[in-house]
Design a protein that fits this description.
This protein is α/β, with parallel strands linked by helices. The chain is 42% helix and 27% strand. The protein is built from seven helices and eight strands; from the N terminus they run H-E-H-E-E-H-H-E-H-E-E-H-H-E-E. The chain has helices spanning 2-18, 30-43, 66-70, 73-79, 94-101, 130-137, 142-154, and strands spanning 22-24, 49-53, 56-61, 84-89, 109-115, 120-127, 155-157, 164-171. The strands form three sheets. The protein has a three-stranded mixed sheet, with helices on both faces. A three-stranded mixed sheet has the order 5-6-8. A two-stranded antiparallel sheet has the order 1-7. A hairpin with a 2-residue loop joins strand 2 and strand 3 (56-61).
């Protein structure tokens, strides 16, 4: 009986974390300010956040402005040759933010596992299609590695400290 209560509490904890409000924490440098100005010039929109990781540039914008900004993606990619430019909706909850990090993919389901050894939550995205899963992972795992670095370094859960989240992609069974 005690064990079932602990499981229920863990499920509640996981549910609380998934629906937890989030924010992105990033300090801007001069190059980020220059990119911000150029993004505004091309799209007419100020991004809420800009995160540069490896060869990716993530522009986080308000949900209502997403489709307007998305129309300018080819211009931005031409300007930042050699970089992978991503326009992402900035969401309020972890679950919504994870969905927006994979904007054109069909995620069938999500599974959450608590990893006691590493002290983190594993967020497992389940796909029906190998093509979607391959796109989510990226060439040589590049995209999923960058997303895990982004989540680890810049994504802050509002009311929970000391919990990290790691994203995995799998095929649904």
């Amino acid at each position: 009986m005690l064990k079932s209560n602990l499981i229920r509490q863990d499920k509640n904890l996981i549910q609380d974390i998934i629906n937890q409000k989030i924010y992105l924490k990033k300090k801007y440098d001069n190059f980020d300010l220059l990119i911000n100005k150029y993004f505004k010039k091309i799209t007419g929109i100020y991004p809420k956040n800009i995160i540069r990781l490896r060869d990716f540039i993530f522009f986080f914008i308000e949900k209502k402005m997403y489709h307007i900004a998305k129309n300018s993606i080819s211009q931005l990619r031409r300007k930042f040759k050699g970089k992978k430019v991503m326009i992402i909706k900035q969401e309020l909850t972890l679950i919504d933010q994870v969905h927006s990090l994979f904007p054109d993919l069909k995620i069938k389901d999500m599974r959450i596992e608590q990893d006691f050894n590493q002290g983190c939550l594993n967020l497992i995205l389940l796909f029906n299609d190998y093509k979607d899963r391959g796109i989510a992972i990226g060439k040589k795992g590049g995209y999923i590695k960058v997303l895990n670095q982004l989540v680890k370094e810049f994504l802050i859960l509002e009311n929970v400290s000391g919990v990290s989240v790691k994203i995995y992609c799998q095929m649904s069974i």
